[in-house]
Amino acid sequence: MTAMLNVKDLRAYYGQVQALHGLSFSLNEGSLTTLLGANGAGKTTTLRAICNMVRSTGAIEFEGKPIGTRSTENVVRLGIAHVPQGRGTFTNMTVEENLQLGAISRPDKKAIGSDIERMYDHFPVLKQRYTQQAGTLSGGEQQMLAVARALMLRPRLMLLDEPSFGLAPLIVRDLFRILGKINREEKVTILVVEQNAQLALELADQAYVIETGRIVMSGNAKDIANNEDVRKSYLGY
Amino acid sequence: MSAAEEIVTEAPAVEAVPKRAMTLGYGTSLVVLAALIIIPLFVKNFIIFQMTMLLIYALAVMALNILTGGSGQFSLGQSAFYAVGAYTSAILMEHAGMNYALTLPIAGIVCFGFGFLFGQPALRLSGVYLALATFALATAMPQLLKLGYFEQWTGGVQGLVVTKPDAPFGLPLSQDMWLYYFTLAVSIAIYLASVNLLRSRSGRAFMAIRDNEIAASAMGVDVALYKTLAFGVSAGITGVAGGLGAIAVQFVAPDGYTIQLAISLFLGMVVGGVGWLPGSIVGSAFIIFVPNIAEGISKGLSGAVFGVLLFLVIFLVPHGARQVAIVAQQLAAKLKKN
Amino acid sequence: MELFANQVLAGIATGAIYACMALAVVMIYQAIDHLNFAQGEMAMFSTFVSWQLMQWGVPYWGAFVLTVAFSFAAGIVIERLLFKPLAKAPILTNVAGFIALYAIINSVAGLIWDFTIKQYPTPFGSSPFLGSQLISTHQAGMIGITLLMLLLLFFFFRFTRVGLAMRAAASLPESARLVGINTSWMIALGWGMASAIGSIAGMMIAPVVFLEPNMMLGVLIYGFAAAVLGGLSSPFGAVMGGFLVGIFENLVGTYIPGVGNELKLPIALALIIVVLVVKPAGLFGRAIVKRV
């Protein structure tokens, strides 16, 4: 397997405050990787730095191409979909318009209609509500919509920022099941940032643990989940 | 203008500007004051008149600065308050035969009331909506002044002619010179009062609102009261400036108070540096002398020159004269060290 | 009753002017979340350009098309050169920029074409429309053009990808970038479109108010009033707002004694303030809740 995303010595800043202190990691093509850590560890910042939404230094390579200096929209156009924290739903537009927006930077307009149908297969609840204003959806439905919107890009890599946030446990299970399916069936590489470590480790095959802007642990998700010391000191369950 | 620049460089570099961000140090203030007192003794009447206008516009710019720099609200409608002040003074002098000096506090109070009332609806507006409402106020004002209802007092489109006062107590001063010193005294009094206001409890309340309205209200600041108060104070000072302006120009007419005046005052504030009261006089000099020079080159050019300069200020020195002053201070400090 | 009906009709005729301008106001507000105080001046300048083209012998519709194209390009150029660098600056700086632009355009137009009032032609003629003395063929044509623009805008925003992208960029810039939209160019496009719509408004308005550098000041305030009344987030609302303002103005003038032409601007002012205070979202706009 080749590394699809290579991050070396990533440092990010919010004004004067440094949030990441030389982070290095890589994602294998087709993998489902999770980035774990406590509040304020720098998980969200890492995702934002990949999409150039925060000032950062270091080398970020996607499929061999350096992307550190590209603007956010140009990073996305390479096939990196980002589901942000808070979902970023276009609340005053309909569900269908949200999905169309997901594909807005794609040149192949003809396939968009069939892709929307495919999303309705993955997330049947969206089909029932496709003319509804997205802002009227429940939190779980909005998260489904956000994932579907990201998939409309036909991404090579999908970044998810705390998809479980604020959702009921049953819905989270459902969502994670779909993520696993997308990873296997659509061959989308996934990097998911989570606070819910237990669930994320069940889903993922690779895992990184970060603390105060540094990687402190990496490896096979099962190994990390089974390592009692790691669990107690970093993951807190 | 040149006086102001020199003074800035002579300021003690130790007194960092940010600490007393809104005012000048004592030494500098005294030098400026001395210059303002002495210069008129050596220049022609017309220049004295221009210096009077300089002070008057500086007052009006400072009033806007208190509103914007102090409480974070902005207004494109200052010309309306200026007009109300000017007409109040003119009407009281010409129709009620009142002494010119007495009309000023009345102009101030009337405008305070007007501003306070206008501040009530403006309270619920922020940012661009407030700009819109005040912009509309400024454009509507000349038409209001032309109204047939008030014509017997305002003189309608014709306006009113105002008599220029003589120096009192038989002082051997020309009318222009007396009016200059009178304006200077009023300006100093208002400047000191404003500085004290901003350093007072109310001033801190203004600034708290400017920086974070929600946090300010959480700290127990009566946001509604202080925002309208800031509007009132700003309008009141502008009104006094308007009254002085009417006396100095000896004439009030609706078309003297168009949106152009409001734009000039706004420009003066931006050029002088938002939130830096002494910058008002720099801004005022800018809005008085730049159009004169531009009109000298070609008629109708002043708007373009204004606009271009305003863009230059925004791009190059977004903090206006204050930024220039700080850079100058730092340069002076370097020179001293070498 | 007939008087009332006639005045409503006359109001719609004047309202078309405001509706036209309000459409441009809403367009820019949608794109940049600000009101462009130089909008009227930009429209005035465009109108002068079309006048100049006609002076050089270009036929009306040729000049019309060229002017719209010129205005579209000029709007984009102005945004790229002057306002893109201010994108992250505070509102105050942006307002200062609009004011500067206002002063420059007004002054330059005066320098090039001087301040005398000029006649401006209408392609629709100015005979009574369908035999009514209250509404001329020009005014009817102007209403038609306004409604046509509204319809085109509706289709653009509802059914085209660019329109969808523009709406997304305006409502949630960060999310828009995350689906690959170049939000910066969407803003430029918004400027271009607003400028183009403004130029059409200017060319429609000029036969009524005559062509001169200060022709748009009052119209712009009314355009603002109409846009605010209809709701700044709704092109449909802006046009309805324009007609309502026109009707309101005429009825007030007819039924309240002493209110003549001289009170036009104060009425607009009062209307703006009342609407902003009582119903900031306007009649047809969407209320925007700001989270604290």
From TrEMBL, chain C:
The chain crosses the membrane at residues 12-32, 60-83, 95-115, 135-157, 185-209, 265-289. It comes from Bradyrhizobium macuxiense. Belongs to the binding-protein-dependent transport system permease family. LivHM subfamily. GO terms for cellular component: plasma membrane. This is Amino acid/amide ABC transporter membrane protein 1 (HAAT family). InterPro entries: ABC_transp_permease (IPR001851), BCAA_transport_permease (IPR052157). GO terms for molecular function: transmembrane transporter activity. GO terms for biological process: amino acid transport. It holds the Pfam family BPD_transp_2. Keywords: Amino-acid transport, Cell membrane, Membrane, Transmembrane, Transmembrane helix, Transport. It is a multi-pass membrane protein. The keyword Transmembrane applies. It is found in: Cell membrane. The lineage of its organism: Bacteria, Pseudomonadati, Pseudomonadota, Alphaproteobacteria, Hyphomicrobiales.
